[in-house]
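Next comes a concrete protein, fold included:
___
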Amino acid sequence: MSPGREADETEADGAEASGAEASGAEASGAEAAGSAGAGGAGAAGSAGAGGAPPSRVPAPWVRTRLHAAPAAVCALALLVALTACLAAAFPSAVDRYEDAGLRRAVAQARPDSTALRLSAPQPDVRLPRERREEALRPGPLGRQYARVRTAVRRPLVADPGQSTYGVRTARPLPAPDPWLPRPTGLPARFVLAAQHGLAGHATVRSGRLPRAGARVTAATPAVEAAVTAETAKKLRIEPGAVIHLPAVERAPLAVRVTGVVAPRNPDGGYWATQPLLRGPSLVRVPGGGADADTYWLGALLLAPEAAPAMLGTAGDPWRYWNLAPAAGDLHSHDADRLRSAIASLESGPDLRAVRAATDPATDAETDLDEVLGRFTRLRAGVRPLVAVAAFGTGTVAAVVLLMAGALAADRRRAELTLLRARGGSLPGVTGRLLAETAVVALPAGSAGLAVALLALPGGRPLPALTAAAAVTVAACAAFPLRAAIAHRTVRVHGGRQDVTAVRPSRRRTVAELTVLVVALGAVETLRRRGAAGDQLGAPAPVLIGVAAALLLARLHPLPLRALARPAARLRGLLGVLSLARAGRASASAVLPLLALLAALTTAAFGGSVLAGVREARDHAALLAVGADARVEATAPLPSGLPERVRRSPGVRGLAEVSLAYQAKPEDGRQSVPLAGVDPRAYAELAGRTRLGAFDAGRLGRPAGGGALPALASPQVARTYGTRPFPVRLEDGSTVTVRVALVRARTPAVTGADFLVVDRAGLSREAARPNVLLLTGGRLDAGALRRAAGDAGGVQVRAEERAGYVDSPLQSGAERVYTAAVAAGAGYAVLALLLSLLRAAPERAALLARLRTMGLTRAQGRRLLVLESLPQALPAAAGGALTGWAAIRLLSPGVDLTTIALASAETATGRTELRTDAMSLTVPALAILAVTVVVAVVQAWWTGRRGSVTELRAGDTR
């Protein structure tokens, strides 16, 4: 309510005028401000008329007003600093987890797919031999490498520690030496590689690194080489061994192994870009089928100066330059530019620059663009959901800043009215108020920005600076603009602004209709395109809350008017007085409603998102495991194992399954997994996990023999129908089954095709269990693995669920989303406190007057609580209803699969929003609790101060 009004007071206008005079008399420096605005009123005019300088200089406006209300100044500074810090932290946090997601995606990919591999064939054979040899030497290759790194433009930056260059043979050379292992009689083959930087990336285990003594040429008969420890172990190579490789038109090239080295970082780009260099592989001869001959393929590491010796062999030496991307220079916001740079290097202007620096036949190859493509698709699915929380929290924070400005304008309404009445110009007064607010807001906003940048380093500074600047500008402008609008016309007495008396203006109607149309458009956009389509649907939840708040503000006076007359007939005083006080609330209470409903809608939507993510991961983990835990082996499990596992901590239920993956129905051309189970135990498991629950009696073995009833998947049921058909099992036995039940899922089998029968109808060998399905609340994975031993592998649902969060994009988005929803809830509580604080002086004065008339302290508490409930109850109920409606409206357009699961391939279907009761009810009940607590505390504080303090002479509160 506006200061100076009471529920039972009829002399409001006179009280308001006297209050304005009192405020004007108390305001230090008010006349000086009026003089500055009007051009000569007040103290300055008096000094000029007297002809003598004034005895003292009035204090400056800003300093005077800051000293007059230090508590309000500190509160504004704290609000601006906190809001600016949160606003600046949001883009920094998003940048951090997106950058971490990109770097994780690159790190998880193999270096041979993420590195930029540039290669050029050996020089033209028509060139002189000296020129061809010179092209393979370290000097020319090193200069070309430097030019290649210069040609690669940002944002693609090469990691100098893992990038390298060198020469290697394109074709493996057979080694006829008999001491080398021959698995099927074929000789081992080797590639020769002279890679720069071997000494810095390997540790010598035995012997020494290879050297090239004299100037090596194509005719050099012998060279030195090193091998990795893995190559030495598998191919039985020791230092001092000599390997002979065939040469062209001369004696074989003798390669003496001088040392065995161990890679310092075998998974780094230096070694992993060419995996053959760090370890050999067993190669199968092409076209030979499963019984094809095999041979060992390894690498011999020459000194870089010995590369020209490869020209004398039939290995076809190629020059190469491998550039590993620098992980620290990869940023999510550069993903599109990165893909463009890679495309230019593979077949664009940058490739021409690389060829000019190396060889006209140089070719470029990398799979980094595919890694970036997978990352950008994941990011595109996560970003819109985070934007929903950002829009919601930003709206609530903006409303709170506007409420703070409105509260300051109402607190100083009488003072500003007096200044305008004494000739203060509107621009002059507004400018002074802007300077007064800026002195507080600018340092506070800067401090909030600094805290955010220090707490979250690594993000882009410009978005954080922009967000903090927007908050600071809004905080600076809220109070002056609100005062300018309220005092644009000079008046001493204002009209009543009661919520039940003020009629909405045409401008407000047009604005509300505009918001409604925009909200409907955002909802339709989200439902049609989905959240991942673009950012147009991101404001949809908060727009629904804003539209609901505007509608509630229009409907709120109706029940108050309807209840006023029946309440007047009651004998008690508190009911009619609380309704009268609620009806005389300020019509500007739409801002608290906006904040509360926007926050409640965002909290409900966010709670549903987080609950949907948890449910999707739980369901996917359940489908993958089939129960809370699974013990599975390829052979029958030991007979005592089920009992040992049953005694493990947390195990409540156990179902034994004999699972045959290669069961062959009818003609045996197609295999269908067949699970033999105990019908009762398995039916309990299926009912508990909600994976194809069924009646155990329908799966029991028939008493008179005949075909076994089977539970089948829909596809198997369509293929074989309900007629009996034989199934040949893996042990050679045959069982006749008929489909009696059809279910889409079953715990024992994760695929879409399956048959489930009574285990008692199978042969003794086929009925032996090889799978145990466990249920329990808190299963101990370590205890299960100790109980299972080496008999079978153990899968735990909780571990499977944790595996679906494999990217910082997912976990970071969840943390930011949770923080945004929590911040929105905090701002909603702050908005509620501001709205209650706005009417606190008037309530205190009312309680003091009623106490002098005999109102007890308990009645005073009940009065304040009853007075607050007509505003808090509609806000809480409307917020819960709006949140429910937003979830129902937006659920078809929101797919949580991307943020919930590690990849789309692990999804079991589209994951939509589902109503979460906790996120709907808890915030609404919290609003009611805060309202009641504040009312009770205010009543206690007013009673503690006493009536004399509140009823000073001339006090109009």
User: Anything to note?
Assistant: The CA atoms of residues 284 and 294 lie 4 Å apart. The chain has a mean pLDDT of 81. The longest helix spans residues 368-411. The first strand starts at residue 116 and ends at 121.
